[in-house]
Amino acid sequence: MKDKALKTIFNEHKETALFGRYINLKHIIPLLKKHENNFKIEVIGQSVLKENIHSIKIGAGKKRILMWSQMHGNESTTTKSIFDLLNFFTDNPLSESILNACTIVIIPILNPDGAKAYTRLNANNVDLNRDAQNLTQPESIVLKDLFNSFKPHYCFNLHGQRTIFSAGATNNSASLSFLSPAQDKDCTITGNRKKAMSIIVKINTMLQAEIPNQVGTYDDAYNINCVGDTFQSLNVPTVLFEAGHYSNDYDREEVRRYVFQSYLIALTTIVNNDINLEDFNEYLKIPQNEKLFFDVIIKNACFNNEILDIAIQYQEKLIDDKIIFSPKVEKIDKLDNYFAHNVIDASNNAVLDKDGHTLSIGVENDFVIVNNSKYSLKFD
């Protein structure tokens, strides 16, 4: 599929009922009902707080693909893209080759309690992505039982990442990131890791045409407690998807499109048998993520006759069913080796809060005053 065609497909099938960062079971239940005559939708378990966990079964082909989203409740972009994908499968003839070749099972929200509370953890304050071996949580057991019964040939582990990540040591935000997880402590590049790497390389080729130098990979340090490492160790090629930050896209609506397009490229790569085990060399050239970004940096601020920089990081807060991005002073220092999604130049002036006080680390401020002028710290 050509890049322009992919964008057109997304625009035609975007699920308009979903928007922004706060996506929970309440938002997707009407959409599950909408699709109940198109796909097999089941309740496959319950969360700690007895919320239903659903699966969606699509297609009837021999290649089995398992996808799950919102293992971390506050990582919702990939869930939005799932429902865009369902619309594509419902009424686009281009989907027929995928539906005929594949059987896809999707868990749209694995952690419904965390999704409702907008937290990474589940209701027992457990990170489900560190529970793959002990299986102490009902949500972990639901995923593992589905994995065992479905016996997938490929797994797509769908996540979201913070705005802090750069694609390598560059002033380029990691708008999407990927990983072919390790399957042993030596991080051996095995055959099934190469298959996952090849899928990522095909996705990266597409993304570079739209967001050049804004794709990263994660360190593949082995942790058998992580779901991806566990499934990879069971010889199932597993691809980690991480929806990141694009310029001013704090609602993750532009990145949502890139994720949707990545799904299609991944699926068509599998359907068309385009996996090339030599692609791992290209995978290794994708820059690894570094934590070099802040949301805002106020440059050249005067503190006690010293010129420093002020780093602002947004705190995501759930208030009245909306996500509020509250600017918090994270660091005051020389920040020449860091980057920001928004830069304010204080031009060697003092930077004050709304009460006329000098800023301090840990304090939240919606705006600052520089040389008697007011500057908003919020994104436009």
TrEMBL record:
GO terms for molecular function: metallocarboxypeptidase activity; zinc ion binding. InterPro entries: Peptidase_M14 (IPR000834). One of its GO terms (biological process) is proteolysis. Keywords: Hydrolase, Metalloprotease, Protease, Zinc. It comes from the Bacteria. Its cofactor is Zn(2+). One of its GO terms (cellular component) is extracellular space. The keyword Mitochondrion does not apply. Residues 11-380 form the Peptidase M14 domain. Pfam families: Peptidase_M14. Belongs to the peptidase M14 family. This is Peptidase M14. It comes from Lacinutrix venerupis.
